[in-house]
Amino acid sequence: MRLHQRMLTQITARIRTIGLSIPQFDLLSTLTEQEGISQSELAERLYVTKGNVSGLVDRLVQAGLVERRAIAGDRRSYAMHLTPEGRRLAERGIAIQRDFVASTLGKLAPQELSELDRLIVLWRDLARAADAP
Questions:
Q1: Which of 14, 21, 45, 127 makes the best surface tag, with the fewest CB within 10 Å?
Q2: Residue 123 lies in a domain
Q3: By C-alpha distance, which of 97, 99, 85 is closest to 31?
Q4: What angle is formed at CA 91 by the lines to CA 63 and CA 13, rounded to 5 degrees?
Q5: Which terms are listed as keywords in the entry (predicted)?
Q6: How many Å apart are CA 19 and CA 13, to the nearest integer?
Q7: Alpha carbon distance, N-terminus to C-terminus of the chain
Q8: Handedness of CA 51, 127, 5, 109 (dihedral sign)
Q9: Is the dihedral of CA 127, 1, 101, 33 positive or negative?
Q10: How many domains does one find in the chain?
Q11: 121: pLDDT confidence band, cut at 50, 70 and 90?
C-alpha cells in the first residue's frame, strides 16, 4: 500500500505540471484510444459511475479540452471527442507517464519484469478469489 501511495503521489505531481488531475488525465488518455464513445462507455472504461464521468466531462468541456457531439438517432447520448488542445495535453501526459515508467520499472531486467508480472497476476487472481462468495 505504501508503494502504491508513493507511486500515485509521484505521478500525480508530474501530471499536475501540465495542469491536469489524475482523473482528468485518465479521461483524456482514454479518449486517445477511442474517440466518439458515449459517457456511459467512458464510465465503464474508467471504472467509475456515470455521474462521476458527467461532472468530469462538464469541467473538461468548459476548459476546452473535450467536446460532446450529438449521436445521430440518439437524442439522449453524446459522443465524446478531444479538442486539439485536449489531444495535446493527453499526449504530453502520456509522455510523462512513459518517462515515469521508464525511470522506475524500466530499470528492471527483463527477467525481473517477467517475474514481477507473474506475481502481480497471481496476486490479482488471489484477490479476485477472496471476493468470490
A1: 127
A2: no
A3: 85
A4: 75
A5: DNA-binding, Transcription, Transcription regulation
A6: 10
A7: 25
A8: negative
A9: positive
A10: 1
A11: very high
Evaluate whether residue 20 is within a structural domain. yes
Residue 94's contacts (CB-CB under 8 Å, 6 or more residues apart) are: 29, 32
What pLDDT is recorded for position 71?
Answer: 82
Q: Where are the beta strands (DSSP E) in the chain?
A: 37-38, 66-71, 74-82
Q: Is 54 a domain residue? A: yes
Q: State the residue range of the domain holding 53.
A: 2-108
The answer as to whether 128 is a domain residue is no
Model confidence pLDDT, tens digit, residues 1-20: 999 999 999 999 999 999 99
For residue 97, give the C-alpha cell: 507517464
How much of the chain, in percent, has pLDDT values that exceed 90? Answer: 86
Average of per-residue pLDDT across 53-65: 95
